Amino acid sequence: MNRTLYTVQRAFVALLALGAFSSCYMDDSTRVTRPLQVVEPTTQLQELYEVEFGAPLEIEAPTYRLTNGATVTPTIEWEVDYKKVATGNKLVYKATSSSDYGLHVARLKMETPDGIYYHRFRIRVNFKYRDGLYALTQQEGKLTLGYYPFGEASHVVTDVFTEGKLDRDLTGTPKVLDAFSHTTGAGVTTNYLFVGGDTWAYRLNADSIKPIGGRMNFNGHPMQAHAFSPTDINEYVIAEGKLYTLGLLTSLPRLLNDNRLKSAFANKLPVLAPELKTWRASNLQGGLIAFDQTTGTPIIMELSNSGNKVHLLKATYTSSDDAGESTTGNPFEGSSLVALSTNASAPAYVAILTHSAQGSYKLAVIDPGLFLSAKKEEKSYPLQVITYKGTDTPTQLALRPEHNSAYVAAANKVYLYDLQRQVQTAPEAYITLGAGETIQHMILEGGTRLYIATYDGSASAVYSYDVSGSTAKQLWRDTSLGKVVQLVYRAPR
Fold first, then answer.
1. Which terminus of the chain has fewer Cβ atoms in its 10 Å neighbourhood, N or C?
2. What is the pLDDT of residues 459-478, one digit of tens each?
């Protein structure tokens, strides 16, 4: 028993000695023992920092104390992607190369003669060009792109192409701008911008403003319209009334000399109006809607990987010109197209505005999916045709998300038209802009924001209106861009 107790006592003494040795050691400079001096942070860094491409990210080292009240100053180093990039209390990181987008591993190191403190974290470099309003403009004889982040004018970028260092020839007249995205079966999403001028175009990565593929040419035909079809994953372009198709991964346009399109027009290719919209009734059913200027016929195309189908609009319709009587046929025969409009929240509906040979303007909203169902069942497709009653010439159209009304722009005014009920007199202007301004383009985003580009003969202005209520409320007006030709809103994906 005594022998066992003696053994326990010896072990306890050994543990005490070990503890004393761990808190003190022999300093070669003083030859005396002293407490360890180790960094203990009193604040913590984040696990993730986010910064916009091109903007500086500043991170301060955490405040700290040294164990045992020591006063030694630690050396501080910062690493990004396993490379030392800074020393001292502050890290200043700025992404300047296209390879800098995305996530980066980073580390803080605080070292004293007695120990090292590490903190590992990540830095995410976000694309500068994301959600927001884009404006195609011309400055000094070349195409430029203005950008309003998140649709606000507080931090407008007047020339995205110069700021994004786009190394391409942009000399020419701006014609076409489109924004679209595609998600692969593996779940990878790529955002695109399509920019066209004169007889050429570029496809760009919308996030990095880097070109995808080379310069696209259309046999010398002037650019007029562009649309991306998620149904068959192809791009379509109208150039001088002709329809071209592009594979998403190619830069070689192909003239769509489609026999189905020919046979629909007595073996002649139609002359298409400079407007093209996509429609989608379901994941499996969708296509394009275009307009033949020669006959005044809306063209509804079904697109699929197995082949395209072409349908010419035929409907049973009424209008004020017909004194309320129903007529079956093409309600726009002999007319020319003024504008087409669809809405992201109602992609199955397309609003149409035409000008007849008799001088009247007509509006209607078409449901291509319903039209095709009626045709398949050999039933008549009903269509309400509305006659525009204003005295100013209408030029732009924006369909509301509930698809039963639309904004119509004429001169410097915007009218709200009911597309289900004919009015006998012109409605009062919903928005009136400055005298001398003419509306060049107009788009509706989210059903509540109406963006308008105007030109007064010498300068452009871009407006933002809240249209969620019975009266429109102007949110901002900006005049920092060149002459604006087209507006596109890139919504979050």
1. N
2. 999 999 999 999 999 999 99
Per-residue pLDDT tens digits for 355-382: 998 889 999 999 998 999 999 888 989 9
What is the end-to-end Cα distance of the chain in Å, rounded? Answer: 78
Please state, in angstroms and rounded to a whole number, the distance separating the CA atoms of residues 112 and 232: 63
Q: 330, 309, 325, 320: which is closest to 381 by C-alpha? A: 330
Q: What is the rounded average pLDDT of the residues 387-410? A: 92
Measured between alpha carbons, how far is 174 from 189 in angstroms, rounded to an integer? 27
Nearest to 135 by CA among 387, 397, 466, 460: 460
Whether the per-residue pLDDT at 240 is higher than 70: the answer is yes
Q: How many CB atoms lie within 10 A of CB 410?
A: 20
CB 121 within 8 A of CB 48: yes
pTM strictly above 0.70: yes
d(CA 252, CA 266): 29
Both tokens assigned to 277: 């919209």
Distance of CA 65 to CAs 38, 45, 109, 110, 372, Å? 8, 15, 15, 12, 75
Alpha-carbon distance of 402 to 96, in angstroms, equals 44
Integer Cα distance of 26 and 229 in angstroms:
76
Query: DSSP string of 417-434?
Result: EESSS--SSPPPPSEE--
CA distance readout (Å), 126 to 87, 203, 488: 25, 21, 21
| pLDDT over threshold 60, residue 152 | yes
115-126 vs 315-318, strand pairing mode: unpaired
Type of residue found at 57? L
